[in-house]
Structure formats: structure tokens, C-alpha cells
């Protein structure tokens, strides 16, 4: 049976700090993903449309209101119940919390591989516990993750170091990065790709530029070493208003393709 990946667009940035804009990202990632500029081959050799299918749910009708989390959770749960493997296109990083609630309900606590410049472990930011700077604090509090490994981090302050120690988070800081330093995780595995984990030279289209980050090849090398079944993933924090010549959109689509290929590997399993 050919695996099917369900794309779910999450057009929201109500929990963003500093700048708005990521709500516009799902449509532009989708346009680049299916652009004639390139083909549908992935680096693993799997080809979209031949070895795996993509079922595009479109964008959820999010209202930038309190009910949005429930809509996200329901959509992800529906994908898993249908035997689909969800790839969610944000939106800001706050969407990862309701996604993980649905994933953990289906699979139990998961291992998480998180690429980012920021640990996103604030207890709250600007009096907002659902800030895009806080999703992993909520995820760890709720027991949704068995193990959280963060890669590319380069903005740790004292509070977030304390939070990481509190929750037992494993952080590969950018100053000590190598692909080999990232542990090989077990399944079920969830991958969260915040595009500002990349150096701004590779991804200028983000709200929070943080120099000294990952290259696209760094990310791909880390992903290539992981062989656990990937049950769901997200690509978040593209801000099209900050992009240059669509560079970051192209990067987001490239990473989305590679994540879909990971989810389509024979050992990956949808919820039953």
C-alpha cells in the first residue's frame, strides 16, 4: 500500500511576538512545493506521486481565536484515524502543542526532534502561556514527549536553561553542533522544523533573524541519520513578508518534501 501524507495548513500567528506574518506561510509553501521549478524526487530516492501520495487538506479555517487549538487537534487526529501521516504547515510555533496533543493521543508520548534557534521553553512570554516561545514548556508539562532533543539552539537565557533542566530536555547548542552529536531517536518520532533554526543566509524569511545557525545541508544530514518511524511533522515560522526572492519558501518546500519521504519509509506506521 502506497503511503499517503496529509498536508494541513495552519494559517495563524496570533501567538507570535515581535512580528506577525507566519499566517501567510502555508499557501506560499504549498505553491512552491508543487511548482514546476523542480521535480518531485526526494534525496532518499522516493518520489512524490509514485512512491508516496500527498493529500492536501488545504488550510484550516482558523479564526485567530481560542477555538483554534481544538480545530488543529481535531484535524490531526482525523488524519491519523484515517491512516494518513500529517505534515502541518505553520503558522507560528505555537501550533506544535495542539498537534502533539493529537499525536500523543494516538501513539502515546513520542520522541521529538526539534530544529530551532530558540528553545521555546518559556513558561510564558508577554503574559501569554500559549506564546510561540512556549510550546515545548506546554508539551513537556502535559507529558506528550518521552524525549525532546533540540538542535541549533543559540539563544538560551537563564530561564530557558532552568526550564530545560526541569524537563530533562537535551539541547545541541549551535556552538557545539555536528550531525553526529545529535542522538539517534526511537519511534514514534515527531519532527518540528522551525525555519529560524537555519542561518539567515539560508532562510531570511523569518521573523527572528539569529545569525550563526544551521545550513540546509546540516539539517538534511541530521535527518538522514534518523531511522525511527516518523509519525508526524511540522514546518513553521516562515514569514513571507521578510523573504528575499522566495528563498525561504523554496527551503521550506525542500524540507517538507524530505520530511514526507521520511514519513513514507516502510517502517513508518500510521495510527491504528
Q: Briefly note the structural class of the backbone.
A: alpha/beta
SSE pattern:
EHEHEHEHEHEEHEH
Beta strand %: 15-25%
Low-confidence runs: 268-272
Helix content: 25-40%
Oligomer: single chain
**Rg (CA only):** 17 Å
Give average pLDDT, whole number.
96
**Number of strand segments:** 8
State the main characteristics.
272 residues, alpha/beta, 8 strands, single chain
Structure overview:
The chain has 272 residues and is α/β, with parallel strands linked by helices. The protein has seven helices and eight strands. The chain has helices spanning 25-33, 68-81, 96-107, 135-141, 158-167, 216-225, 247-263, and strands at 4-10, 53-59, 85-90, 110-115, 145-153, 170-173, 189-194, 230-236. It has an eight-stranded parallel beta sheet with strand order 2-1-3-8-7-4-5-6, sandwiched between helices. It is globular and about 50 Å long. Residues 268-272 have low confidence and may be disordered.
Amino acid at each position: 500500500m502506497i503511503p499517503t501524507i496529509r498536508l494541513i495548513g495552519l494559517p495563524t500567528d496570533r501567538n507570535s511576538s515581535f512580528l506577525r506574518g507566519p499566517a501567510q506561510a502555508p499557501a506560499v509553501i504549498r505553491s512552491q512545493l508543487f511548482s514546476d521549478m523542480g521535480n518531485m524526487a526526494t534525496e532518499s530516492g522516493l518520489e512524490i506521486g509514485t512512491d508516496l501520495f500527498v493529500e492536501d487538506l488545504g488550510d484550516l479555517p482558523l479564526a485567530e481565536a481560542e477555538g483554534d487549538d481544538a480545530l488543529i487537534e481535531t484535524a490531526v487526529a482525523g488524519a491519523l484515524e484515517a491512516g494518513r501521516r500529517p505534515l502541518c504547515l505553520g503558522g507560528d510555533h505555537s501550533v506544535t502543542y495542539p498537534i502533539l496533543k493529537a499525536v500523543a493521543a494516538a501513539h502515546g508520548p513520542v520522541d521529538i526532534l526539534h530544529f530551532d534557534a530558540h528553545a521555546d521553553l518559556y513558561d510564558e512570554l508577554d503574559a501569554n502561556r500559549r506564546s510561540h516561545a512556549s510550546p515545548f514548556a506546554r508539551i513537556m508539562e502535559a507529558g506528550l514527549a518521552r524525549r525532546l532533543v533540540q538542535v541549533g539552539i543559540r539563544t538560551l537565557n537563564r530561564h530557558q536553561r532552568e526550564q530545560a533542566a526541569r524537563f530533562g530536555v537535551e539541547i545541541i547548542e549551535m556552538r557545539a553542533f555536528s550531525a553526529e552529536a545529535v542522538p539517534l531517536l526511537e519511534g514514534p518520532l515527531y519532527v518540528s522544523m522551525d525555519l529560524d533554526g537555519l542561518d539567515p543566509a539560508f532562510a531570511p524569511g523569518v521573523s527572528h533573524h539569529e545569525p550563526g545557525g544551521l545550513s540546509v545541508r546540516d539539517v538534511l544530514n541530521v535527518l538522514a541519520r534518523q531511522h525511527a518511524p516518523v509519525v508526524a511533522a511540522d514546518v513553521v515560522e516562515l514569514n513571507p513578508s521578510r523573504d528575499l526572492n522566495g528563498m525561504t519558501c523554496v527551503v521550506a518546500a525542500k524540507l517538507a518534501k524530505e520530511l514526507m519521504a521520511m514519513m513514507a519509509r516502510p517502517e513508518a506506521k500510521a495510527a491504528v
